[in-house]
Predict the structure of Nuclease SbcCD subunit C.
Amino acid sequence: MKPLKLTLKNFGPYENETIDFTKFDEASIFLISGKTGSGKTTIFDAMTFALYGDSASGDRTPQSMRSDFADTKTPTEVTLLFEHQGQTYQINRFPKQELDKKRGTGTKIFESSGKLEIFKERKKVNEITKMRDINLKLLDVLQISREQFVQIVLLPQGEFRRFLIASSSDKEDVLRKIFRTQLYQRWSDTLRDMLKKQSTRTKDAKHAIDADLAKVVWLDDAPADVKEHNVSDQIAILSQQQSQAKAALKDLKKRQQSAQKHYEEAQQQFHADGEMNQQINHLAEQRQQQLSLRAQQPQYDKLREQVAQLKWAKDWKPKYDQFQELKSESSKDQLKLKEVNDKIQSQMKAREKQAKQQTQLQTQKPQQEQRLSQRTVFENQRSIFKQASDLRDQLKQAKTTVAELDRQLKTKQKSAIDLTVQDDQITQKLTQVVGITERLNGLIQTLKTLKTASKQLTKLDQDQQVNYELKVRIKRNKSELLELMTRVDQTQSKYTALRNNWLSNQIVNLVKQLEPGTPCPVCGSLNHPKPAHVADLPSVSDNDIKTAEAQLQQLQNQQAADRTKIDEQVKQSVKQEQQAKSAFRELVAELISEHILQATPDSLEAVSQQVADDTAKNSRERDVLQEQQNDLKAEQEKQVHIKRDLEQLNPEVEQLKAAYQKAQSIQQKYEVQLDDVGHRLPSEFSDLASLDQHLSKLQQSIDAYDQEVETNRNQLEDTKRTLAASQATETSLKNQLERSKEKMEVLQDDITTAVSKQFGTQSWEILENTVQKVVQLADLQQQIDDYQDQLKDVAAVISTYEQIVVDHKLVDLKEEEAGLDQLIKTRDQLEAQYDKKYRQTLLNDELLKRVEKNKRAIHDQQETINQLQLLVETVNGSGDAKLGLERYVLQAQLKEILQVANQHLKQLSSGRYAMHLHKEAGAYQKNTGLEIDVYDDNVGQMRSVHTLSGGESFIAALSLALALGEVIQNGSGGINIDTLFVDEGFGSLDQESLSMAMAALENIESHNRMIGIISHVTILQERIPYQIQVQTQGQGKSRVRIITP
């Protein structure tokens, strides 16, 4: 991937800048220079945003890269033109930003957008506008992620120098992100969780066994100390106990069933005798009820006679009701007829009165015609008054308009003057923006250095603490070694004495075996004139001497091992102390070069305190500057609004002047017209109001007459119509009364004849009383029917009971009940015994099953736990090798990186240096597996990377950075990155180291790569002819200037 052209609009400090990288085609190295905070690294941020839609560091969102000076009219956009594998690509991106609405007023948030154009041989072959498709296409073209792109293209030298001397744990964190080996870490966590769960299940199973055995109910014949036996013994005892308990349960069950059978037989007999007693009692009750019912016979005979009369009355009730209804309707019709007669008389009088009023109104018609004529004349004269009144109103409105325009014009003119003064004042304040921005950017850069230094100081303090703990262990080990040496000396003395006694005992045995004529085993003499005499000694066996010798040898071996361990710990302590001092010196040198420290401090605590103080001071100064910057930004925004307001005010003032002159002209025109109309006004009325008042009275008289005529006509018509309707109603009511009278006479004759026949009298009194009681007919009939049904039911029940009882007599149930109670008691006692033993046996059965199941589970799980434990230790690196699976994989990656890096380092150091992985395990896991040593050909041995000078560490870090980029490229399909950026790292180098670094960079020319150095070091500007100079312009803006020879 080779960049050709980069355009930035309102991105960071760049308002509208284009960087043409094709001007550096003839250069292998070019310099990007400028003041701190001017925007050098922003160029790389813009390239990363164009390719991936995000910044290089990832800690700033694309929308935050929008220029502070950009207004809402101009968008932020980045365009990158680059070549890759024979094709040309142009990507144009807009971040999420707030801009003016395209329609209407106000602003809105526009989401991120972009466009990717692809060219082949200068001909467009494709265009993509969807963000998702753009990102996928670029990722497919480049074959690397944003993080890998930043790692390959931007080489932050400070970070790689820190990577060189970092611990294995810190290197692992960095390499994990690059090579994405989090999977191995997740494997480790998963295996650890599996082991934990398996161990927990085993522990739970053991607890469950203990809990279940504690719940077992042991029988009396169990051993007294059964709970103190082991689990297997308790299971065996419990199994035997359960077999015995089940046999006893079986016998008890038979006895219980026998008792239940005796109880059921006695209960059946008891229930049979009880039921027969109930039948005998029911028979006696039914016979008594039959006698009671027969005694009520006379009462029900009278009730039958009453029912017969009610049935007759029920038959005649419809005609009786019809007669009463006709009688009631005739009374109502007579009342209505009287009301209609009265209404007809009233309507006839009203008709005569209305006819008389109609005649009077007809005589007033000439006067109405005269009023209509006058109205026409006066309405014709009204237009002149109306014209004069309208002109007065228009003149008044014109004067008001002239006064209002005069007021508005003066107000707008004053506002324009005030805004101009405010604009001049804000312009004066904004001269401070450049200085504040530069100071704030410098503080931000210093803060990054302080944070990095703080992390390094924390690590140095931790290393110092680790070394102190190591020294404490060395001191403790030395003390223990002295004690061990004393024990060795004591054991040696005891062993020597014991051996001497053993030898003396051997001499005594030999003396005892000497005989005349046999050779001495010492001197070979056949004569033994003076055999040795040894005093009595304690007996020492061969086993005693061997045991003492073994104890002495064990202590001597332990002494040698402890002495070796102490020597190694002392070497490690010295090495760690040297490394810490070297790292401390490098850090102090870097802080002095950054002007954070003025002189070499006495201790790590002093540097930490100075860094903490400077960090706090930096924070305070940044807060002050940020507040000032925010205030100035607010003033800047205010000035934008002021200028916008001034641009709107000036045309408004001119418009108001023109409107004011026009309003004055209209006022004069109305004054002339009003004077002309005044000479043509009639003399009868003083003004339009008096004329309108007279017209109003005249119109009221006209309307009153017309209304009176209309009302009279309507009333007369209504009266005639209602009179005709009333007369028709009168005729209808008379006819209705006549018909009702005829029907009533017929009904009265029929009812009277029937009453006379039924009761022997023509009086309707008995009929009227009986008709009122007809509603009781159904209830009375039901009572009679119920009485008959009861007689039949009682006779049937008595017959049934007589067939059941036959000749049975009452039985005394108390004696039978007492025997039954005794059988129940015996049965319940046996049931209680059985239930108790059954529950006990069932509980013990369940507990035994659970205990045996958990015991089997523990046995089955133990092998799995052992295998998991070994696997977890291997994957986590907690074994003797201290090398986990993930670090083992990263070790292979780092070996590959070092192989490629050594090719560069061999060239850059003229074959002197080569980097290798440290082969020995460290004292702790954190410094094992990824430690780097440097082979120095001048001395012919390995040495620590901490011993490299500034220039040496620079070329080593550069080689490592280049190699990492190449390995990532090869792992991503062999892509080509034709441009590299080296960001800073030069300011901390002395003159010799800087010369070495420049020579190293120049030696990379053979790789056909263009290298951009991002730095503010002056000497680089003198040695590198091709440059991109970033120049600050004030108000947070920067410009780009390209320098070529």
Q: What stands out?
A: Residues 876 and 884 are 5 Å apart (CA to CA). The domain at 1-143+986-1045 is CATH 3.40.50.300 (Rossmann fold).
